[in-house]
């Protein structure tokens, strides 16, 4: 009887030990599950954070692109000077910006430096100075500019050198302008073009500022 009792006690103890082991394993499993779930949540947060940051960057880049596109097409016009026709006001290789809004409420004026579509090839942008206004007659005699047959030459801007030659007369059509480069002896302009006049609707803007080279930044007059 004692032997049977001992064996029964051992089996009971073994069952309790097994039950405790199972309970311990269940507790450990729950802890591991909670830990793994927490890790998964943290990983998901990390992925969501990275995705959110990436989306924010993409939105910022898109907005900047749209703003740049709007500014370049509706507010300013960029131009690089390919030749010396505007020296010494603007030099070869200079970069300038023009104001597209300059002529929304007023007409271009004499001596304005304008950026426009070249009348003989509108795929090219040119930059010159307005000399003749709509309806005027422009004539150049011995390097001097005369407007509408005046006996007194036009008070010209400072040019690279004294202009030589005789040109014209040119009668500027309404809505158009007669333009010349400041480097008068080395400028292909209204004196030489097949279509000599610049229509107002082909003027993209008034050149207002030279921003390159940085050491030569200045307003354009």
Description of the molecule:
The structure is a single chain. The protein has 221 residues and is α+β, with helices and mostly antiparallel strands. It is 33% helix and 25% strand. The protein has one helix spanning 2-75; strands at residues 76-80, 95-99, 113-117, 125-132, 137-141, 144-147, 167-171, 176-180, 198-199, 203-212, 218-219. Strands 1, 2, 3, 4, 8, 9, 10 and 11 form an eight-stranded antiparallel sheet that branches. The chain starts with a helix and ends with a strand.
Please specify the SSE layout and strand pairing.
Elements: H1 2-75, E1 76-80, E2 95-99, E3 113-117, E4 125-132, E5 137-141, E6 144-147, E7 167-171, E8 176-180, E9 198-199, E10 203-212, E11 218-219
Antiparallel strand pairs: 1-2, 2-10, 3-4, 3-10, 4-8, 5-6, 5-7, 8-9, 10-11
What shape does the CA trace take?
A: rod-shaped
Number of helices: 1
Estimate the mean pLDDT confidence: 83
The amount of beta strand, in percent, is 25-35%
| Major sheet characteristics | 8 strands, antiparallel
Q: What is the radius of gyration?
A: 40 Å
User: Roughly how many Å apart are the termini?
Assistant: 123 Å
SSE-based structural type: alpha+beta
Helix content: 25-40%
Poorly predicted sequence stretches spanning 5 or more consecutive residues: none
């Amino acid at each position: 009887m004692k032997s049977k009792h001992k064996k029964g006690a051992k089996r009971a103890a073994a069952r309790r030990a097994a039950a405790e082991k199972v309970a311990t394993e269940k507790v450990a499993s729950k802890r591991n599950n909670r830990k793994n779930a927490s890790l998964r949540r943290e990983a998901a947060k990390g992925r969501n954070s990275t995705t959110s940051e990436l989306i924010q960057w993409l939105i910022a880049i898109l907005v900047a692109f749209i703003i740049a596109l709007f500014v370049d097409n509706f507010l300013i016009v960029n131009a690089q000077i390919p030749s010396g026709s505007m020296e010494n006001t603007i030099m070869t290789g200079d970069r300038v910006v023009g104001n597209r809004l300059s002529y929304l409420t007023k007409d271009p004026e004499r001596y304005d430096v304008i950026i426009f579509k070249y009348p003989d090839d509108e795929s090219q942008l040119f930059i010159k100075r307005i000399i003749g206004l709509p309806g005027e007659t422009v004539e150049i005699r011995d390097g001097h500019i005369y407007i509408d047959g005046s006996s007194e030459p036009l008070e010209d801007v400072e040019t690279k050198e004294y202009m030589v030659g005789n040109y014209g007369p040119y009668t500027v059509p309404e809505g158009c302008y007669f333009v010349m480069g400041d480097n008068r002896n080395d400028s292909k302009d209204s004196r030489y073009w097949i279509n000599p006049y610049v229509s107002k609707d082909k003027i993209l803007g008034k050149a207002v500022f030279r921003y390159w080279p940085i050491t030569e930044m200045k307003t354009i007059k």
